[in-house]
Amino acid sequence: MNKKNNLKSLLGQIPSGYFVVITKSFDKKRVNWFMASWIQQASFNPPMVSLCLKPQRPGVDEITEKEYFTINVLDKDLSSYFEKNCNKNKIDLLEDLETIDLGDKGIVLKNAKSYMVCKAQTITMPGDHYVVICEVLDGLMLNEEKEPSVHIRDSGAHY
Q: Would 159 be classed as within a structural domain?
């Protein structure tokens, strides 16, 4: 048995969710977003989540500069929509959906299960991704009847 391949399979089996992280540029004129799956609760008090973030992701500057951003929890329909259309212009993809503008706090997908307004508190880069510990400052359950989308990977070597 090849232990390295086995390790990749084991890591891929760690369940996670599907999320859309949305940031606004410093001048609040440009909106960026990316799909994320590596988000977990990290603290009860204060409420915090961990977010793993590839350095090339759109919006990384706003997050690492500790601007507000939103994490939108996706259901199966919304995660399928983003997966199917990920090759489309990213900003146009958001424009096709109903959003709620929270001003300086960020933008929310109206059809998401829920959202959280977050701000980075601790940022490290122990490997090829930033690990960002974010305080959850606000949030709301938008569509309680929806089930959150769960993501399991075939391999822990890629998304």
A: no
